[in-house]
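User: Sequence in, structure out. Go.
Assistant: Echoing your sequence, followed by the structure tokens.
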Amino acid sequence: MKLQESKRKLTTALMGPWRTAPIIISLIVIALFFNSQNSLFLSSRNLTNLTSQIAVLATVALALVGLLLVRQIDLSLAALSAVAGGIAAKLSVEVGMNVVVAVAIALAAGVAVGIIQAMIVTIFRAPAFVVTLGGMFILMAVLLWLLPATSVIPLADTPLEKISNTCIPAWLSYVLLAVVLVVFGGMRLTQHRSRTSEEIPSNLLRSTVVPTALLAVVTLIPLIFVFNSYQGVPTPVAIVLALMGFIAYVTTQTPLGRQVYAIGGNPEGARRAGISVPLVTTIVFATGGFLAAVGGIMAASRQLGVSSSNSDLTLLLEALAAVVIGGVSLFGGRGTVWAALLGSLVIGSISNGLYLLNASTQMRWTIEGVVLIAAVAIDSSISRKSGAQQDS
């Protein structure tokens, strides 16, 4: 009986506040293993490169989190990111437009594509899988039309290059650290007050003080120290963390966030509760388009150019793998925005570690596939046991 009770408590914990614990443990194991094989893995230089590499992946994965939460999918995200990068590059380099204006137009294009696809999905009740698949082909064609006769728009020595190839000053990284801790602590405190106002048991120390202190001491301060011991916090990393912080706030502290989870949990129930499912779905698609555009611009900057290879489907598949590994349900209503970061770190760490060991591409894909299947199998097992507990 004691063993069954322990299993029940463990399953309940893994479905609740300790949902990310297995992922974090996996990351630690992966880091220790690759560092034992090559001591460069945990060096400040490699960690800086690793986080810069996964910035684009994490941004596209973040777009997928919102879509999966409302039981939708967007297969055109990788192509859309490439087109956004192409628009920014063409306007700033070939047309000579101010880089800020060019980036703003590219971001607006991402939002517009998201809205158009959402309208087709919601008005005609067409499957998002098919609509966005068609959108992917169209966007791949648009990218080819954007490219010049040389098939490449070079970005070396242009203002766009600086987006992904610069670091923020050390003093600014500590300012951002303080902002992140204040925002995170404020969100936890709001949740604590909300629970106590509804007469739900909540401990201020465990709900707010300890998590904020752990975030600072265990994660952010060591990370910033590592970054600053090399060249500083990469600009793409700061952009991704800012986006994740903002969307985490929206999804956990605002009515819109609650509506997103309600639609994912039970679309018909959400509609009967007065939630405008088409409007919320359109907002999620538009946000996904914006994030894809941000990722595309960062990718173009990092690769110092835009070509047809920027619409590689590998980005979409790795982003989908990242959010699943991070714990987002493929059936909607369950998951957090931090899943995109954790899953991307797992994918990126494996890829980076195998690169340091000179492993082949087929070996990297095989291991990523095994990790993905294992993550889905564990997630399904936990969900099934949790459902059995709730039914009993």
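User: And one key feature?
Assistant: The longest strand covers residues 152-154.
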